[in-house]
Amino acid sequence: MEKLTHQEEEVMLVIWEKGRGIVKDFLEKLPEPRPPYTTVASIVKNLKRKGYLSSEKIGNTYLYTPRISQHEYKGKFLSGIVKSYFSDSYKEMVTFFAHEKKLSEEDLRQIIAMIEQENK
To answer: Hey, is 35 helix, strand or coil?
Structure first.
């Protein structure tokens, strides 16, 4: 699957939140200032072309449903970031964020506790 643009990700976040819907539903959930309807419709069509959405024609409109979960998307593209920017090492990524003061000692303790809990 192709990586999403910033605008596509913004619309996709709304679609994941709603579960499914028509373009008007997605437009209403976007933050102000909202893009024009035609822009959102174009983005939704691109998301379908890229394989992120399926559609079902209902009357004169289309009902769109995600084909990939938000969790699957995060996993796929986070692993690409780790590979490209952190020598394919999650340890290096966590170290980077700790050095940048984006993770506190308490955050790291919680991460270790989660890992230990999952390994039991």
So the answer is: coil
Supply 90's token pair.
């999650």
Is 11 in contact with 30 (CB distance < 8 Å)? yes
Number of Cβ atoms within 10 Å of the Cβ of 3: 11
CA 22 to chain centre: 19
| Residue 64 contacts residue 20 (beta carbons within 8 Å) | yes
pLDDT in tens, the chain (120 residues): 788 999 999 999 999 999 999 999 999 999 999 999 999 999 999 999 999 999 999 999 999 999 999 999 998 888 888 999 999 998 899 889 888 988 888 998 999 999 998 887
DSSP codes joined into one string, 66-82? ESS-HHHHHHHHHHHHH
List the Cα angle 69/72/73 in 5-degree steps: 90
What is the model's pTM? 0.78
Euclidean distance between CA atoms 35 and 21, whole angstroms: 17
